[in-house]
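[job 4471] stage=fold_predict status=RUNNING
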Amino acid sequence: MAARKKTRKSAPKARKPRAKAARSQPNLIENVQQIWLAGMGAIAKAQKEGPAAFQEAVAEGLKLLTRSRSGAEQMIRDAFDAAQDSVQSRIGSARDQATETWDNLEALFQSRVHKALQQLGVPSGEEIRLLNQRVAELNESVKALSARPARGRARAKKQPARKRVRRKTRAA
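[job 4471] inference complete, writing structure tokens
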């Protein structure tokens, strides 16, 4: 196969940008000069208005600081409130558990004391109440019975006395 010759078509293209660059070089220099002048004007303006701009920056900084402080304080308050609520919740839970445990211990203690008293033969509160009631009934019965003979003796004394006859006993 035959080798192809490479043609250089890119050479004329390279010449065109150079030509454009040569033509745009005055525009570039003009743009650079404008940027340089804008920078110089900004420096002059900053020197001229520097103290006022500084004061404005300080005032804006104070405003920003105040806003950030109030925001931070609010965040701290919210975090503190959340922590306080959490602690209160945990304390309430612990208090409930302690109360429940105490109630269980009390019930267990009462049960064991009651069982021990039953084994010793000590009467319960209900048995003592029934005994007291029975004693009160018996006291009333005794009073009623003792009041009847007293009335009977009083009647006997009111009746005329009988003469007693003595009998002589035989002597043997």
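[job 4471] summary: Residues 116 and 170 are 74 Å apart (CA to CA).
[job 4471] exit 0
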